[in-house]
């Protein structure tokens, strides 16, 4: 069952820019607005190394991932050749100036957090170890 | 709608490449038919030499198998030579009577070997070296016969001779000129080449004219007779006396031909607008090219016009030469012979088998001839093409570009000596084997293609020379022939320089104006050109052109550095690397309050807080209460200082003070790329001024200023710029140099590359010799920076979109 909900107005998204919808415990969903005022929604995770696509540069019908500059199609969520891979896309509807997404999709598709290769928490450990006992 | 018909005459590399480009951009526009005189699908003609030498097989050099033609619905007429075209009825006619009608005709008939009018040229056993049939004939003859003579000591003749030697034949190479490859090499290099080939068992007769080819009773060649009366036995004669554009058909059907089929910049024949021509048969601006890269460039341009996009012009290429004989490294380009008004720099080590000659004219490199060590070939080729002055690097020129600080590939400079598992590209972890496989499997020919597909040499670029060598060995492609002008990106044909100049000359103020004026192909550019154009606008017209936040990379939009997990790092500014207890206390409190996981001291004497969530950025900045460190931008980053005369027992000048003054004067300065400064208080140089964009070293009598150093990918020592007396002068001179770079540098070009491009002497002339210009530059910089906001605290003025820090909603 679709469950369309207004999340923002078109003007809340910058032209050639993006906003995010936070999902509790799961990766955000990025909402993009391109130069023709078309609106797209993708899982905020590049198929390459999980970079947040919402932070990329939007051009034409694409966004360039901020981490390693893969180009992802906004329409289908797929990487442009020669790179390969797709991220989840979400349905969007623009009614007048309202931007709607399907809550059903948001709560069922591509759940779970983005897993980035573990970063050794060096600084934190050292700091904790060196902190004098109170 | 009925499809148009495209017929191609010739089934070779340039033509098929043109169709590939066409199918990429307009897959359904045409019904395509191809006539090929040879009975084979398109193969890599350049690799016939390795096939002859037994290093590759015929199967391996096929570029487009028959299945490719079928997949794209191309009608293929193999083994059918086209004998006529009726231009009025638009019909192509083959020898066997096959006809195809066309709306567009592409003539890609390549070239024919030139056979001099020698008596006996029609004897059996006399062949050229041009196609698979010739190659097979040589391979077969080598099995049953002993003596071979190759006539012509150019590239092709040498490759043929080398192949026949490795197939066990006794080979004599006959050459008219006094030394081998006289069109590509000077006498010294030519003789070195001859000696090393003699060691392989090849025999030579230079300065020798052939009189006739002598036949035996069965009509087969038995000997070659020379003009001096001598003779040498021959069961096989390979004539490699050069090639001529194959214009037979074109001339017959009345197309204008002059050293090739004459075409314009869109590869359209000048005679018939329905007929195009690419490849070795086409004469563009008087030149018929014989190398792969320019021909593919032509193919690309031609494809856009066949696709009716009406964009793209071919402007010619500069070419260089390499020999495809395994184990022999040889490179030449330009006027390598020199002449009356030329100077030469020569390095000769005949025992080590290395010879390098650089030819200089009017302070510019005009020719290069390298034998034995060609790793710097592409560097010289670049200098040659760009025609920049070399006076300031003359003393180092012979040692090439890669003499210092190349990292990431274990100091290797001979790709052939590397194992398949050896890493070539240290940035992206690409091995030699992976690169060679991609070149073979995907049919890559240019360095750009290899970069795109494998990512090798796509990041720092220091392994470019190695990747080029691999291309050479694997595909035989002449990657180094480059278009004279490099477009900014695929969105446009305009170069960085043209965009800069147009913005200034026509007072353009918005990105859209630029795109419209220069006919951009895309509505809002791409992630590569838009930031560049935006920078050119705001640096050319400060206070007039409006900065576009959406044309900045994320780091410059969020004013922090994005990390691999999507969090950010924050670096507050510490003037000249100095701080105090209250700043440190605030930093410590911020770390605790926002649970910042990693704290790191940077190479630029700052403190880096890593792992900050995007939502927390504004609050972290408020909590720190320190100015933005701009560690995230193409901006002035840091001014690194030593403690200087205030504390140091060796210090001669107050380097900390000057460093702070410089940083206060220059902070918030956007530039083509990041800018790093350092000030040392004495020649011990503890602040490492020698590897900075502007490095200053205090001496007893004042300050020495160095510019264009770099510590990154390529370690480059900064060059001495000027000696000054006072700190005020240092500000003015350093500021003027940086403003020159800001106004003229190409986006993402560091000072080291900018100065390498324009020449240090040019910078000196603009900044040192011309006092009025220096003052004007310094004033323009101050005008640009005056009133610039701190983006961490003045969101509105700095164009920071605060909405980015908050999600639209939470589900």
Greatest interface by residues involved: A-B, 47 and 35 residues
Classified in CATH, the superfamily of one domain in chain B is FAD/NAD(P)-binding domain
CATH third-tier fold name of chain A: Rieske Iron-sulfur Protein
The second-level CATH architecture of chain A is 3-layer Sandwich
What is the CA-atom radius of gyration of chain A, in angstroms?
A: 18 Å
Number of strand elements of chain A: 10
- The CATH architecture category of one domain in chain B equals 3-Layer(bba) Sandwich
Number of separate structural domains of chain A: 1
Tell me about this structure:
The complex is a heterodimer of chains A (134) and B (811). Chain A is built from two helices and ten strands. Chain A has a single domain, classed as 3-layer Sandwich (Rieske Iron-sulfur Protein). By secondary structure, chain A is mainly β. The longest helix of chain A is centred in the C-terminal third of the chain and has 9 residues, at 122-130. In chain A, β9 and β10 (98-102) form a beta hairpin. With 811 residues, chain B is an alpha/beta fold. Among the domains of chain B are: 4-111 and 245-313, FAD/NAD(P)-binding domain; 126-241, FAD/NAD(P)-binding domain (3-Layer(bba) Sandwich), CATH 3.50.50; 412-468, Arc Repressor Mutant, subunit A (Orthogonal Bundle), CATH 1.10.10; 496-551; 635-789, 2-Layer Sandwich (Sulfite Reductase Hemoprotein, domain 1), CATH 3.30.413.10. Chain B is built from 25 helices and 39 strands. In chain B, β14 and β15 (231-233) form a beta hairpin. Chain B is globular and about 105 Å long. Classes of the chains: A mainly beta (134), B alpha/beta (811). Chain A binds chain B through residues 7-8, 12, 14-17, 19-24, 28, 31, 34-36, 49-52, 55-60, 62, 64, 66-67, 69, 71, 82, 103, 106-107, 114, 116-117, 119, 121-124, 127, and chain B through 452-453, 522-527, 530-531, 549-551, 553-554, 557-558, 562, 564-566, 597-600, 610-611, 801, 803-804, 807-811.
């Amino acid at each position: 069952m679709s469950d369309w909900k207004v999340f923002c107005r078109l003007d809340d998204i910058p032209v050639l820019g993006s906003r995010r919808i936070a999902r509790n415990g799961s990766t955000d969903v990025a909402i993009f607005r391109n130069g023709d005022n078309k609106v797209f929604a993708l899982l905020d995770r590049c198929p390459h190394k999980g970079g947040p696509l919402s932070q990329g540069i939007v051009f034409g019908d694409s966004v360039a991932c901020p981490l390693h500059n893969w180009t992802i199609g906004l329409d289908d969520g797929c990487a442009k050749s020669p790179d390969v891979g797709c991220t989840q896309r979400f349905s969007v509807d623009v009614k007048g100036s309202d931007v709607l997404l399907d809550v059903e999709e948001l709560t069922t598709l591509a759940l779970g957090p983005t897993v980035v290769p573990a970063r050794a928490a060096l600084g934190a450990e050292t700091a904790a170890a060196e902190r004098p006992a109170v | 709608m009925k499809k148009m018909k495209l017929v191609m005459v010739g089934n070779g590399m340039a033509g098929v490449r043109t169709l590939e480009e066409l199918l990429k951009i307009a897959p359904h526009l045409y019904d395509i038919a191809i006539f090929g005189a040879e009975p084979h699908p398109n193969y890599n003609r350049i690799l016939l030499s390795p096939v002859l030498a037994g290093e590759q097989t015929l199967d391996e050099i096929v570029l487009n198998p028959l299945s490719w033609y079928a997949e794209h619905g191309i009608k293929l007429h193999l083994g059918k030579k086209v004998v006529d075209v009726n231009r009025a009825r638009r019909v192509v006619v083959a020898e066997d009577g096959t006809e195809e009608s066309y709306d567009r005709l592409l003539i890609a008939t390549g070239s024919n070997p030139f056979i001099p009018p020698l008596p006996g040229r029609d004897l059996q056993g006399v062949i050229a070296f041009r196609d698979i049939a010739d190659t097979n004939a040589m391979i077969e003859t080598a099995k049953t016969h002993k003596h071979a003579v190759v006539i012509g000591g150019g590239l092709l003749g040498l490759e043929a001779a080398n192949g026949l030697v490795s197939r066990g034949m006794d080979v004599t190479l006959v050459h008219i000129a006094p030394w081998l490859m006289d069109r590509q090499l000077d006498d010294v290099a030519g003789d070195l080449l001859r000696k090393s080939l003699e060691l392989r068992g090849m025999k030579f007769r230079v300065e020798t004219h052939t009189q006739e080819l002598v036949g035996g009773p069965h009509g087969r060649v038995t000997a070659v007779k020379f003009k001096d009366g001598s003779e040498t036995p021959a069961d096989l004669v390979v004539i490699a006396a050069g090639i001529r554009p194959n214009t037979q058909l074109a001339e017959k059907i009345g197309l204008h031909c002059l050293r090739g089929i004459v075409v314009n910049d869109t590869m359209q024949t000048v005679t018939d607008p329905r007929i195009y021509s690419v490849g070795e048969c086409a004469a563009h601006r008087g030149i018929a090219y014989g190398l792969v890269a320019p021909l593919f460039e032509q193919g690309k341009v031609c494809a856009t016009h066949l696709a009716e996009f009406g964009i793209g012009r071919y402007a010619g290429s500069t070419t260089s030469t390499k020999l495809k004989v395994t184990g022999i490294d040889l490179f030449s380009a330009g006027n390598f012979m020199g002449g009356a008004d030329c100077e030469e720099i020569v390095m000769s080590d005949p025992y080590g088998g290395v010879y390098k000659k650089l030819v200089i004219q009017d302070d510019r490199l005009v020719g290069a001839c390298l034998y034995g060590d060609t790793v710097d070939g592409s560097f010289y080729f670049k200098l040659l093409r760009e025609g920049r002055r070399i006076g300031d690097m003359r003393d180092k020129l012979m040692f090439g570009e890669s003499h210092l600080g190349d990292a990431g590939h274990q100091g290797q400079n001979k790709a052939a000596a590397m194992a398949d598992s050896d890493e070539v590209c240290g940035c992206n972890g690409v091995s030699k084997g992976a690169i060679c496989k991609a070149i073979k499997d995907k049919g890559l020919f240019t360095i750009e293609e290899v970069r795109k597909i494998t990512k090798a040499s796509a990041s720092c670029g220091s392994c470019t020379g190695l990747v080029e060598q691999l291309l050479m060995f694997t595909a035989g492609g002449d990657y180094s022939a480059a278009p004279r002008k490099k477009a900014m990106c695929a969105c446009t044909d305009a170069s960085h320089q043209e965009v800069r100049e147009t913005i200034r000359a026509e007072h353009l103020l918005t990105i859209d104006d630029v795109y419209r004026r220069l006919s951009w192909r895309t509505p809002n550019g791409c992630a590569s050109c838009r930031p560049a154009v935006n920078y050119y606008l705001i640096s050319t017209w400060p206070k007039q052109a409006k900065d576009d936040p959406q044309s900045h990379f994320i780091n410059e939009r969020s004013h922090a550095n994005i990390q691999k997990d999507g969090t950010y790092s924050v670096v507050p500014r510490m003037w000249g690397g100095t701080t105090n207890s209250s700043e440190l206390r605030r930093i410590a409190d911020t770390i605790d309050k926002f649970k910042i996981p990693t704290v790191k001291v940077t190479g630029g004497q700052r403190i880096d807080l890593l792992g900050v969530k995007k939502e927390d950025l504004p609050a972290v900045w408020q909590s720190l209460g320190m100015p933005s460190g701009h560690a995230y931008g193409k901006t002035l980053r840091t001014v690194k200082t030593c403690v200087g005369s205030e504390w140091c027992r060796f210090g001669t000048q107050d380097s900390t003070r000057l460093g702070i003054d410089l940083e206060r004067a220059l902070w918030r300065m956007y530039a083509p790329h990041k800018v790093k400064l350092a000030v040392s208080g004495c020649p011990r140089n503890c602040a490492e001024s020698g590897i900075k964009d502007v490095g200053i070293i205090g001496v007893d009598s004042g300050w020495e200023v160095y510019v264009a150093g770099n510590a990154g990918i390529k370690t480059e020592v900064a060059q001495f710029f000027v000696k000054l007396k006072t700190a005020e002068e240092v500000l003015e001179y350093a500021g003027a140099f940086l403003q020159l770079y800001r106004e003229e540098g190409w986006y993402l070009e560091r000072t080291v590359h900018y100065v390498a491009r324009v020449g240090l002497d040019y910078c000196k002339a603009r900044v040192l010799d011309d006092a009025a210009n220096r003052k004007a530059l310094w004033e323009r910089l101050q005008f640009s920076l005056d009133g610039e906001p701190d983006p961490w605290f003045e969101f509105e003025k700095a164009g920071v979109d605060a909405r980015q820090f908050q999600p639209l909603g939470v589900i």
